Each structure stands twice: as C-alpha cells, then as structure tokens.
Amino acid sequence: MGTVTALRPKEENRYPGIAEAPRFSCALGGAYMATLATFGAVPILHSGAGCGMSQNFGQNFAAGLNGAGPQGNTSTPCSCLVEEHAVFGGEDKLRALIQSTTELVRGDLFAVVSGCVPALIGDDVGAVVKEFREKVPILHVNTAGFVGNSYKGYEQYLDAVIDQLLTPQTVVRKRVNLLGVVPYQHIFWKGNLQVLKDLLAAVGVEANMIFTEPDGLEALRRIPSAELNLVFSPWSGVPAARKLKEKFGTPFAVIPSVPVGPKDTSQFLQFLARRLQLRRSRVEAYIAKEEARTYRFAEYMADIAMMALPNAYTAVVADTGTAIGLTRYGSNELGWLPEIVIVTDDPPEESREEIVRSLTEGLESAVKPEVHFEIDAHKIRLLLREHTVQLVLASSLEKYLAVDELDAMQLSVAFPAYDRLIVDRTYAGYRGGLALMEDIAYKYGGPL
Amino acid sequence: MTIDLKANTCPNREQRAGAINAYYGKATDLVREVRAGSLVNQEREFQQSSGCVLNFYLTTRVVTIRDAVMIVHAPVGCSSTSLLYREVYRRIPPSEGRPTDFDLHWLTTNIDEKDVVYGGADKLRHAIKEAQARYNPEAIFILASCTSGIIGEDIEGVVAEVQAEVEATLVPVHCEGIRSRIIQTAYDAFWHGVLKYLVRKPVKKQPDLVNIASMLSYTWQDRQEITRLLNRIGLRPNFIPEFATVEQLRIMGEAAVTAPICPTYTDYLSKGLEQEFGVPYFMYPSPVGIDHTDEWLRTIARFTGKEREVEELIREERATWVPKMDAIRADFARLRPDGKKVEILGSLGQGRLLTQVPYFEEIGVSSPAAIIQDFDNLVLDEVEQIIDQAGDFDVLVNTFQAAELSHITRSYDPDVALTCPFQGSAYKREKGATRIHALRGDARRWSAQAGYKGAIAYGNFLLQSLKNKAFQKTMLAKTPDTYQDWWYEQTDPLHYIKKEA
C-alpha cells in the first residue's frame, strides 16, 4: 500500500480506454454541459436518474467548484429510467416529462439529451421530440454515454443545433462565432469567451460567444449570419465549423488556442485584421495601447516572477488549447523552460501532429517540450516522475503529487480543478498572463 | 429478514423494506400506511435528476477505501464524480489524525460502442489484472452500471474466473443505476459484497472494538469526537467504509457491537454481521445532540461491559457541554421575542429525521415539516417514538426533487431552510438558509455535528444562519426563478404525481 509500482515496460495495451481517472465525462455529460451553458436552454435528460446529478461533481464542480446554475444538477428534468422502462420502453415517461417541463420550467429552448438506456433499449426519442416541435423550440441531442467523452458531446450538441434549429440568414459583415471553447472541460470557458468578445469588439468585430450570451436561443439562431467562424482549438469545434461551411457557406479559421498574453493576443488581432479586412490603423492603435499598459503592469509582477520562478522548468498537463496557450506564454514571455507537456483531452489521431507542432515550434526557449498524449492519471504521474521540473501547470489531480513527488509548485489550470473557484477568471488576452502570474505567486507568496 | 449471501446481490429496498420516495401527508398516516403495507410508490410525471444506485454514493466513496481499487464497469461518464479522489482526504491535515500512507486508485473500463455490441467481459478481465499489476491492492471493487446490466455482462462469471489469477479479493457490487428507484439500495448492494467477500470468520473477538459505519455527511471532526469519547472508556471505533483499510472491513466480525450513525445506511450491514458472525447491533439513537449522545454511549457500553465507565464519562462531559447548550438555547429564544420558536426546515435522510427532530427540541427550535429522501419500514418504531415526543408533523418524501423542495420551502416559509447543494434554488429566499451538513473531507471544527462537541458546534452554526440574510435575499431578488409562478400558487408539492404505481 502507498506505493506505485512501475508499469511494465512497453507492454502492448489492448485496451487503451481502460484508464485511471480520465479527465472528462461522457458524451451525454458534454451535451448536457453545452445545454447548461446556453442561457435560457432547459436540458431534459432521457436517462437513468443519476446522469444529471453525477455530472454536478464530475463536470460543474470539477471545473473550478462551479454550481450547475438554475437548470443544472437536481434542477434538471430527467426521466429517471429504471428496469421497467428498460423492459417496456421509456417513451411514455419521456412524453409526460417533456409536457410537464414545458409547463413548469422557465425556458426559451428545451434540449432533450438521451443517454445510454434509451439507446440500448431502442426508444424512438426523435419521434417523441417531434410531437413537441410545433409547440416549443426543442432539440434532440441523440447521444449516449458509451459513444464518447464530453468533447464528443459538445460536438453532438452543436450538430443537433445546426441540423434542427438553424436556417440560412443574411451574412452580417464583421460578425463572427466563437467555437472550440468547450464549457466546463475548458475550465476558464466563461472568462475566455468574454475576453475574446471584448477584444474583438475593441477592433470593431461583433462576436457571438454562443455560450453565456444573455439570450441563448437567439445566439444559436444567429450562428449562420456570421462572416467567419473562429475555432479556438486544433480540433474541438472543427467538425461544427466544417458543417457550418457546408450548410451555410461560412468560412472558418482555426486558431490553435485562446491567446494568452500580449504577444499571442496581438498576433491574433493582426491575423483577424487581415482575414476580415479591418482598418489596420485602428487595430494597430489598439494593440499599441494594450501592450503598453500590459507591459507597464508587468513591471509590478516582474520582481516576484524573478524571485519565484526564474527560468523554471515547467510541466503542463492540460487539454490541448490550455496546453498550447500556457506553454507559449511561459516560453515566449516569462522565460520558462517547457520540459514536458501532457495533452489529456484525447484529441483525434489526425490532429496530433499539428498539436505537437503548436507545442514545439515558435518557442523562444532553448528547451523544447517532450509531448505526450495520455488520459490515464497513473501513467501521467509516472511520466512526470521522469522529469525534473519546478512548476506544474496541471489539473488538481496533480496538486499533491507535484509537491510531494516532484518537489515543484503546482497551479490548477485544467480540468478537473477542485481546489479553486473559477467564475470568470481567465488567462486569455492581454491581461491573461498577468492573471496567471497572480495565481502562481499566490502559491509562492510570503515575505522575502 | 434473512440475508442471503449466496445470492449475487441484495433485494432492492422496495422489496426488502417497502421503500417509497413519493409521499406528502401526516407522519402518522405515513407510518400507518407503511405498517399496513398499503403504500405503493408512485411515478412522477415531472421528475428531476436525483442520483442513481451507482452515482449517489458509491463512486465517490468506495474509491476512498485506502488499499483497494475501484473499477467502474461502465461508460466513462459514470465515474466522473470519482475525479475528486486524490484530494478529498488529502486536504485534511495530518495533525488532525489523517494517516499519511495512502494512495487511492480507480479505473474505468470505458465501455464504448464496440463493447455494447460484442460485450465487455474481456475488457473487465484486463482491467482487473491491470489493477492488480499496477497497484497491488488488498481488494478490487467492481461496480456495475446501467449499461453493463442491460447488455448482460456476466460480472460474477468474470470474478469467479479471474479471482484465481489475482491476489486481491474481488468484490462485485451490483449497483446498476436502473435496478431500483430507491438510491439507498446502493448501501445494501455494497454491504452485500463486503459481507459476502471480505468479512472473515472471527479468529478472536475484539471486545473493545465498535463498528461504526457512517455516511459521507458526517465529517472528519465527527469521527475525531467519536474516537475521543470511545477512547475515554477504553473502546476503539472501527470506522467503515470511507477511508478505511480493507483489513478494517475484514475484521468487522470480531467487533463487540455495530453502532449506528445513520441507522438505515447501516441496516443491512448490521443485520448481516449479526446473522453471520453474531455481532450485536442497535439502530437507535445516533450520537447527535447531547441526550442522544448519552444514550448512544450507554447502549455501546451495555454491549462492551463499560456501564460504570460510561456514567462517569457522561457526567464529566455533561458538566462541560450542557452549560454551552443552555447558552445556545437562550440565544435561540432571544431571536424570537414573541415567545414562538425559531422554525427550521431541513431535508434529511430517514436517519437524520430520527436525530434531527430531537436535536431541534434540545436547542429549542421547531420544524414545521420534515422532508425525507426515502421512507421504508426499517425504522417505523423509532419514527413513532419521534411522533410521540414531538407531535405529529407534515412529511414530504422526496429524493432531491428540487421543484418540490422549492415549493415546500416557500409554502412553509421557515426562519431557516437547511439545504444541501442538491436542492436547486431553495436557498433563494427572504429568510435565512444555510447548509444542512458538510461532507467528510471537511475537517474544520465549524462543520462538526456529532457527539457533544458537534451538538454545540452545530447549534452555533445554526445561530449564525439567523444573523444575516443578505445573500439569500439578494439572489432571490436578482436572479430569475427556475419555475413558473403557478407552481407556487397551487398548494400541492406533489402536483405531478401519477396516481397509479
């Protein structure tokens, strides 16, 4: 007890899915979270009774101690299927539940998210949902826990929106949609979206965050009117962007991560100025103003940065976007040495080469990180032990082992983060890097 | 009732104890109907997610058994609540008595589309061997799920076959989410596995050992307080199952008595230990409040031959704590100069009903109604005893149904509503609200509820809740309600109950 035996070397794993504590929930979880992130949308789970409540600890709370909001957790309508439904079908129960929910719960949009049980017993959920289409705005996200993880559920939600809700619209110049920021899995999702929206507004671009927009249904419906879709991940949100291109002809651009700190933020704005043909002088004036302020303010953190973590060897254990954003900021602005990066969100094989490039190219540091893709918390721990690092930017799963086993400082920046409250905290944009340093220095803080 | 350990699992609470989770009426009527066996559970036409057999309790707590591994044979989402495993007990400082040599582990078999078609038995086999090779545990708990159940996974078959190849004791737990409407069936399903596979025939009795099975809602300080009290009369608590070692589960048959903190949580285990190993048990009272702590200690003392020592302990403890309790009672009385009692509405398990009603009497507050998660025939005599003491009261039986809880909270309008994070927006109100309890990982003295220290800590905690309502009022004013107005205008919290089963 108490010790971790080393893995047998290089043994073929026939079942890579078997893992200790993978850092996501299921596809139902992801679709459910996306619904909760759409303000005014009411999720209706057609599933076992635990599929909503368990996500409270496994998704909301895990994403920086968040409550699930007015329609989440035990406030979420659920058909609470048991054995007799598995035998006789759950359609009647669902029909009664949709009817009662539309009477009782305030909402502009109802999203039926169907889980493992109806998928296995063969309920015709689509047919039941169809009965309500004339009466209320309603979606059916036809998913199941066993079809994939939370990231898959996010895609399936957008897919259902595109297929069932969206109609062609007149394109509005300088309007963009923000895709690829996955609610809860990306723990800074709320703040990231808001910072991007504000940043774009400053250069005359109207961004639709989709999630956390005050009128969620309207935000969804507006999606086809964008001039461009911006995807802030090499892979999350890309299927939706492709589908929107096919269906409505909206072009899209993939930005590997939400930009962290002035360098990447300015570069992003310059890219956008070219892509959307914005007035260059306005964009450059904004960049100059923001950079001046940010670097002047960086003077306030410079002393502690030099004392606490000068040229620190870092390990990053995070989802793709967070890993790229923080690795680049640390390496290109703070002078850190990115020793190892472990990407934990199980990106599709075809995007991995691109992710490795984003993590290893364009870094000022002489040290380039060793990049791993790993979902198994045990293997992640063993990988980290092979490296000497001084700062671990990771999930709170690494909170204690970073200190006890690696003798390093740790900050929770990725899912799950059970050790900090994240309401609208973010490391995005000009001020984001300073926010990161504020949080790191809190761990270090004390009189010198 | 005989517990059949040859069976793969326990009967559901519905069958075993006539359990229901939908009722609104007088406590006397409820008891009468349950006794007569005339009460059938009712289906709701509006229902909210409320936990399942796997995912109310088991995934977050089986994983805390210190030298075991939990394998959840399920799609990946069914164990996402277990992501808290590395932190939940680690936050407790060793200075508070937390052991330092532990390392918790769990695995998901990550059932996918292929497994649903071709079966996941081979994957489960592999996961068990992987767990053995990686962590060398004393036991491996294998938790079933809706999906493993519906696709007909033969978990027993896999266990029988693989047990010979691994050193750890394999313990299957049949906790398929869809098996029961009563989430408390999870406790019995877990205890069944523990009794069947882990508890060994006692080689020698340990006359000073007291089994105490407790729910996650009793905190670390409660455990410390109980340890302090039992140690003072020469007894040792065996706290199971959370954060126990597998050996602690194995030796339960050697204990002198099994004592309750939450009687309906412990029921199946207590009865099983008596039936199989002759360990006596009692169901009532639990150590909440000063008087009940006295009685709880006295009952344990009767089983352990500590009658004389316990009287001395109680005398000394009362001298310390009763004056503090008097002060709390006086504070509550001062809060209502009209001479009426402060009203507190709490939502409780059956076990908490039995402890909280008398505790409220002790601190001098009243409860306009009781909200109980589930109700069955396991503690009928005790509930009747409560009714005799406190008078008849309204009861809403409801497992985390947030709309019903919001409704009843608004209609009874108590001075303080005790809510847990599962109660939707019932905390948004004109009057006070606070949490009903903390959880095990919370090691602050502030969060204690059990024993003498807990009685005082909790009394003071409740007093605090009456001193500022700004948060609740502001949230009520500034955020929309989840439900339409008509919900609160009609009078029946069970408006959406379907009249047939």
From TrEMBL, chain A:
Top-level lineage group: Bacteria
SUPFAM superfamilies: Helical backbone' metal receptor
Listed PANTHER family: NITROGENASE IRON-MOLYBDENUM COFACTOR BIOSYNTHESIS PROTEIN NIFE
Nitrogenase/oxidoreductase component domain ranges (all copies): 26-441
Name recorded for this polypeptide: Nitrogenase
GO MF annotation: an example: oxidoreductase activity
TrEMBL record, chain B:
Keyword list, A-Z: Nitrogen fixation
Cross-referenced SUPFAM superfamilies: Helical backbone' metal receptor
InterPro entries, per the entry: Nase/OxRdtase_comp1, Nase_comp1_CS, NifE-like
Domain Nitrogenase/oxidoreductase component: 64-458
GO molecular function, one term: nitrogenase activity
Keyword Ribosomal protein: no
Keyword Transmembrane helix: no
Family designation: Belongs to the NifD/NifK/NifE/NifN family.
Xref: PANTHER family: NITROGENASE IRON-MOLYBDENUM COFACTOR BIOSYNTHESIS PROTEIN NIFE (PTHR42956:SF1)
Name under which the protein is recorded: Nitrogenase
